[in-house]
Amino acid sequence: MKVLVAYASRHGSTRGIAERVAEVLAAAGLSVESRAVDDVDDVACYDAFVIGGAVYMFHWLKPMSRFLRRNREVLAERRVWLFSSGPLGTEMTDAKGRDVLEVSGAKEAKEVEAAIHPRGHRMFFGAYSAGKPVGLAERFVARMPAARDAMPEGDFRDWDAIEAWAGDIARELEGSGLSDAPGH
């Protein structure tokens, strides 16, 4: 079984999650490649996918959305898991008492899920360093003292949760019976 772990990352946090997922899957004996979505030309040779994108202002990065749209037909026929990263900080609930991970998702997620039917979609906390703001909006926010509270610096990724999720995927793929089949 050949698995692609693809990601769209702006600062490297989502890439780090994808790389950790790929490590867990490889340790389980699966054939895995981890690549940025912009570096993936053909998805037909993969049997399963774990695809992740950073979420900014309630939207996935554009390369993530383009990749999912461009490959929708193949993805709908294969095993797919999605993950998103984005919320920063350590608070699990927002000011309204809502679960931060549940309310921080990409607006495009429901449409994508309806089209490709992923086996799961997880949101993970991200990481941020203000040292290198990317894009006009981020540079603007970095200069606003009140907005800095919304983008605290630090690595908030829960590696135990990420590894456990990847382990669940590995077990499901191992149990599928496809791992020993040629071409799968």
Explain what this protein looks like in three dimensions.
Strand 3 (48-56) and strand 4 (59-60) form a beta hairpin. The strands form two sheets. Strands 1, 2, 3, 4, 5 and 6 form a six-stranded mixed β-sheet that branches. A two-stranded antiparallel ribbon has the order 7-8. It is built from eight helices and eight strands. It has helices at residues 13-27, 62-70, 72-77, 100-103, 109-116, 136-143, 145-148, 159-174, and strands spanning 2-8, 31-36, 48-56, 59-60, 79-85, 120-124, 127-128, 154-155. The protein is an alpha/beta fold. The chain has a single domain (2-174), classed as 3-Layer(aba) Sandwich (Rossmann fold), CATH 3.40.50.360. The longest helix is centred in the last third of the chain and has 16 residues, at 159-174. Helix 1 packs across helix 8 (159-174). It starts with a strand and ends in a 10-residue tail after the last helix.
